[in-house]
Amino acid sequence: MNIYVHNKITFASDFNDKSMQKVLSTILRGNNTAPSSLTSAKFSIEELCRYNRMSFDFNALIPMPEELDMETDIDPSLGHTLYRAYQNLPHILASRIIQAESIEDIFTDGSENDVRRQYDTIIRQIEQIELAENSSPFVAEIGRKLMALYLPVISHFETYRWKSSEMPEIDCFSVFSTADKMDIEVRMKKALKITSLHPLSLLDFLETEAGKNMFALGEKCYANIQKYGYAAFSDWQLANWGTGSNALGTSVDWDARQISFLTSINMPEPVALALYKMFPEVEFEWKYMSSEYGINVGIVSSKNSEYTSHKFADLSEEAYNAHREYSGMNKKIPPAAIELPF
């Protein structure tokens, strides 16, 4: 169930048209009009608002880096997970080879060609350690151990009997905390459509179109974390806007000096504070309430150049009373009934 928060900003009654236009031209973006063309558009801000062609854009107050705004059907966290797992594979394999007691701790059953392919794949992965870290003695030791396990089997392949047809799972996600690993593993198996997580299944997946797309997304997410501290838009928005989305369903009542919209999860208090800091002389009340009765109800205000914020205790009598008082905010926002002549 999606939880939405109903928000309504009401500016002071003496807020004239000129001031209204100044503020709204800053914080609103035209649905079909680029921000840079607002002032030169054929229609005024007031006309666009009356025709429901404007949306409250939090980027106007707290800009989100463009690199984080990725339009994709792939879950960014899965892409990031796959990328980090791949980066960690050489060391994971090296550790498994050192601990291996038999070939079945590393390889899985299959034809002779399958086993040779597995060997070649693992060698290529191990060699990445040498290239990245110039640790030739360590890589040489791993190579000797792998060869010692591999040769006896490949030399007598026709008579070798595998105890298990499944390759043992290898902890590809040791870079994540214990609390997150189980959820990550379940989600990755579902996304990759595999039943067992091991390096070769991940590498095979990376050869597919879906795997390449997910890896490319993960690479971008990793770069974003290094640069901005966040993989993609969702985590950044929650941390910087205080909510999981930009404003949804914006409706402007020009005559009543009001803006109504929805947000996901929370009221965006950092945005309210940014609005106050940008226009400290502008007086407003920002009332909000969750779609759940008596939950997440409060009011933020700017008056006499002073910013105040009060959230009522969830399920308290104050919260219930405020929710009833604000209940006019949760009326369905009507779609634009008038077509603009453009």
List the helices and strands and how they pair.
Blueprint: E1 4-11, H1 17-27, E2 28-30, H2 45-50, E3 54-56, H3 76-99, H4 112-133, H5 136-155, H6 178-192, H7 199-206, H8 209-228, H9 233-240, E4 248-253, E5 258-264, H10 269-278, E6 284-290, E7 298-303, E8 306-311, H11 317-326
In short:
The chain has eleven helices and eight strands. It has 342 residues and is an alpha+beta fold.
Which structural traits does this protein have?
single chain; 45% helix; alpha+beta; disordered C terminus; 11 helices; elongated; 2 domains; 13% strand; six-stranded antiparallel β-sheet; 342 residues
Describe the protein's architecture and organization.
The protein is α+β, with helices and mostly antiparallel strands and 342 residues long. The chain folds into two domains: 4-62 and 241-330, no CATH class; 76-228, no CATH class. Helix content is 45%, strand content 13%. The chain is built from eleven helices and eight strands. The strands form two sheets. It has a six-stranded antiparallel β-sheet with strand order 4-5-1-6-7-8, with helices on both faces. Strands 2-3 form a two-stranded antiparallel ribbon. A hairpin with a 7-residue loop joins β6 and β7. α3 (76-99) crosses α8. It is elongated. It starts with a strand and ends in a 16-residue tail after the last helix. The model is unreliable at 33-40 and 331-342 (pLDDT under 50).
